[in-house]
Design goal:
The protein has one helix spanning 47-52, and strands at 12-13, 20-21, 23-26, 42-45. It is α+β, with helices and mostly antiparallel strands. The strands form two sheets. The chain has a two-stranded antiparallel ribbon with strand order 1-2.
Amino acid sequence: MSKADYVTKLHAICMQCGNMANYSYRKIPNDDQVMLGATDVYEPRCRKCYDTK
């Protein structure tokens, strides 16, 4: 990034409050470290909503 002329950062919108989301929250309980899924398994959340679960 030190040589880039422009940097565009993309963020999702938190599904709980509408703020900028930085985390992907897994909605179903599962102990697997990696799990493939779409909107039925994960949803974007901001730091505040992610911590309150």
